[in-house]
User: What shape does this take?
Amino acid sequence: MDEKKEIIKRIESIAGKYSAYEVFSDWIRCCALAISNNTTPMQLQGKIWEDREKAYMDTISRYTTQEAGLFPEMLALLAMALEKNMEDVLGDIYMSSGMGNKAAGQFFTPYHLSELCAELTALEPDESGIYRVSEPSCGGGGMIIAMAKALKNRGVNYQRKMQVVAQDLDWKGVYMCYLQLSLLGIPAICAQGDALTEPYKKGYPPDRVLYTPAKVGVII
Assistant: This one.
């Protein structure tokens, strides 16, 4: 089964009153918010958690029960695709289905180029044995996934030895990256913002930051 084609087929089956681009954007937003809120420790649940819960409900309410039921199906297909082959599945779906925004200059790096860059990069761990990766324009997380795959090919357990900070100006990119890194078990901080004018650092606005389950010590 081609999971990517199955995801596109479901997106197109929902599209009608909304464009495929809107359905895709709503799907990844709902999945990212659901994972984030369901892996946030009870003691940390506050206004941000409540705001994200409202954002989820406001988004999913745009769809019928049958349409909304396809969202978890597509998430399962995404997990299967990533399990089958570590690659930028969402970036490929986004570009191959014609949803790329040419007007905004929004293009996702073809994954084979990300893999080449990762293989040519001399990744070295810090003194504690951790491979730290910073991606200031993460998009769907393709470069990070390629780095993780390169480490895996070198016999390194990327789920334990990798720490990532990923940032993007577009929330869609943040959600895509967060979703894929979460499903791959990569410890990561995914932040929304301009990495040139406000790079992620301690004290960054918490409402613009998502922590993958692996980052907060949760297995999904």
Remarks:
- The longest helix spans residues 20-38.
